[in-house]
Amino acid sequence: MSAVDGGGPAGCRVYLITPPALDPLAFADLLAAALDAGDVAAVQLRLKDVDDDAWRRAIDALRPVCQSRGVAFLLNDRADLVRATGCDGAHVGQDDMPARDARRLMGPDRTLGVTCKGSRDLAMQAGEDGADYVAFGAFYPSSTKAVTGMLDPEILVWWSEMMQLPSCAIGGITAENCAPLVRAGADFLAVVGCVWNHPDGPAAGVRALNAAIGAAEE
């Protein structure tokens, strides 16, 4: 059972990832503004090089902001914290906890996302391992991760035609370049910089991305 509803026939949706470093209390206001500005399917809390106490403080500050608005709140890598902290699920990479282990820790009622890079085999394996969605990328140069090669959106076309499991596109996505990914069948667009670094603020970033998705779907 997934807390994240994909686009499917209804269209593609925004999937927000937090900056890797943040002050939870101050960021809660920014997050609320972003979520109130337009449609967002999920928020993934992604923290790097912090201890469990910092994770818990951030979860306590940000989870209610998301869940009170009907937005799924997912943890990056930390499937072990999901149930105890009341989160909706987790996202794991290929170098993190195996998807099967994450599913076992969380149980069947939480959302599990799995990074599959550009591999069709990894994506199919993720589905077998209990993933609720698979993430492909990077499609564009990213400021948050080193990227060695860009994916062709064709992998999203193939996946959407072959599989029922939702797909998430990630990597350097902006309002200006997202149209090919939307048209290729991505259910979610995972974004960081185009929202949090938007010159007019996160709310404007969400509005611009939703507008671009809508235009691409016309």
Tell me about this structure:
There is one protein chain. This protein is α/β, with parallel strands linked by helices and 218 residues long. 40% of the residues lie in helices and 17% in strands. It has an eight-stranded parallel barrel with strand order 1-2-3-4-5-6-7-8, surrounded by six helices. Strand 6, helix 6 (154-162) and strand 7 (167-170) form a beta-alpha-beta unit. Helix 1 (24-36) packs parallel to helix 2 and helix 3 (79-85) packs parallel to helix 4 (99-106).
List the helices and strands and how they pair.
Blueprint (H helix, E strand, L loop, with lengths): L12 E5 L6 H13 L5 E4 L6 H16 L4 E5 L2 H7 L3 E4 L6 H8 L4 E7 L2 H9 L4 E5 L16 H9 L4 E4 L8 H6 L3 E4 L1 H4 L5 H16 L1
Parallel strand pairs: 1-2, 1-8, 2-3, 3-4, 4-5, 5-6, 6-7, 7-8
Helix pairs in contact: 1-2, 1-9, 3-4
Strand order in the largest sheet: 1-2-3-4-5-6-7-8
Strand content: 15-25%
The total strand number stands at 8
Low-confidence stretches: none
Give a quick account of the main beta sheet: strands, pairing sense, barrel closure: 8 strands, parallel, barrel
Please tell me the overall pLDDT: 94
